[in-house]
Automatic annotation (TrEMBL):
PANTHER family: BICARBONATE TRANSPORT ATP-BINDING PROTEIN CMPC, SPERMIDINE/PUTRESCINE IMPORT ATP-BINDING PROTEIN POTA. InterPro entries: AAA+_ATPase, ABC_SmlMolc_Importer, ABC_transporter-like_ATP-bd, ABC_transporter-like_CS, P-loop_NTPase. Keywords: ATP-binding, Nucleotide-binding, Transport. It holds the Pfam family ABC_tran. GO terms for molecular function: ATP binding; ATP hydrolysis activity. SUPFAM superfamilies: P-loop containing nucleoside triphosphate hydrolases (SSF52540). PROSITE patterns: ABC_TRANSPORTER_1 (PS00211), ABC_TRANSPORTER_2 (PS50893). CDD domains: ABC_NrtD_SsuB_transporters (cd03293). Residues 7-244 form the ABC transporter domain. This is ABC transporter ATP-binding protein. The keyword Transport applies.
Length: 262
């Protein structure tokens, strides 16, 4: 018997004011997959993420999580990280994370007490250590570098231990060197926490480097008289062979490092 997909999308359509954005989107994703999403601007990639989060609802079709219809409101089992840091600027690193924990576990009072607060403190301390922010615990976001602010945004999403992590161009505003550090951080967390990840990126190299599966969104139908008449869909769904890629990278590294024989 085949394993039930972690997330299934069936015949998904999305339109705004009668203008289609996405159409006929169908996909099954297994638990632990890392799906990178690429495509031209305006082809519905971020809209797709918002529907996975339940920030928006499909016009038609359905999304299933563990075989059940996706809740109509965002829930802690799905976290999201945007390109622009979505943290509270007036709170320290620690306060940002404890607030996220309190919203999850005590939505009515907004406070944790006793053993519940101690457990939350321990979990946050462990997360800060994993993500490399322990020295910045008492700093405010404005006192952090761009890379550290994005680490905080990722920590804020992970503090609720989501089953699915959604990333909307999370590294697009970072310098190349910092971006490489964030790649390693994200891959390490993905392996350690066994999350299912959907990540939108405009960088095709980043998509192949990070993903186990590459989804390309584009329009397959065009009307020159009415460019917005049709929506985009998944035009390519490519498995990324990590083993083959790693062998290629190793070969290129060895070739590059080999001294000239002249």
């Amino acid at each position: 018997m085949s394993r039930q997909p972690k997330l299934s999308v069936h015949d998904l359509f999305k339109e705004y004011d009668g203008a289609p954005v996405l159409e006929r989107v169908n996909i099954d994703v297994t638990e632990g997959a890392f799906c990178t999403i690429v495509g031209a601007s305006g082809c519905g990639k971020s809209t797709f993420l918002r529907m996975l989060l339940s920030q928006e609802q499909p016009s038609r079709g359905e999304i299933l999580l563990d075989g059940a219809p996706l809740p109509e409101e965002p829930t802690p089992d799905r976290g999201i990280v945007f390109q622009r840091y979505s943290v509270f600027p007036h709170l320290t690193v620690w306060q940002n994370l404890i607030l996220a924990k309190e919203f999850e576990q005590a939505p009515l009072t907004g406070r944790l007490f006793g053993s519940a607060r101690k457990k939350a403190r321990d979990e946050i301390g462990d997360l800060l250590e994993r993500i490399g922010l322990t020295p910045a615990t008492d700093r405010y976001p404005a006192q952090l570098s761009g890379g550290m602010q994005q680490r905080l945004a990722i920590a804020q999403a992970l503090v609720k231990r989501p089953k699915i992590l959604l990333l909307d161009e999370p590294f697009g505003a970072l310098d190349p060197g910092i971006r490489l550090d964030m790649h390693e951080l994200l891959l390490g967390l993905w392996r350690e926490l066994s999350m299912t990840i959907f990540m939108v990126t405009h960088d095709i190299n980043e998509a192949f480097k990070l993903g186990t599966r590459l989804l390309v969104f584009d329009k397959v139908r065009h009307d020159p008289q009415a460019p917005e008449a049709y929506g985009a869909t998944i035009t390519y769904d490519l498995p990324v062979d990590k083993t083959a890629r790693q062998k290629k990278e190793l070969a290129e590294t060895l070739l590059h490092d080999r001294p000239d024989s002249a």
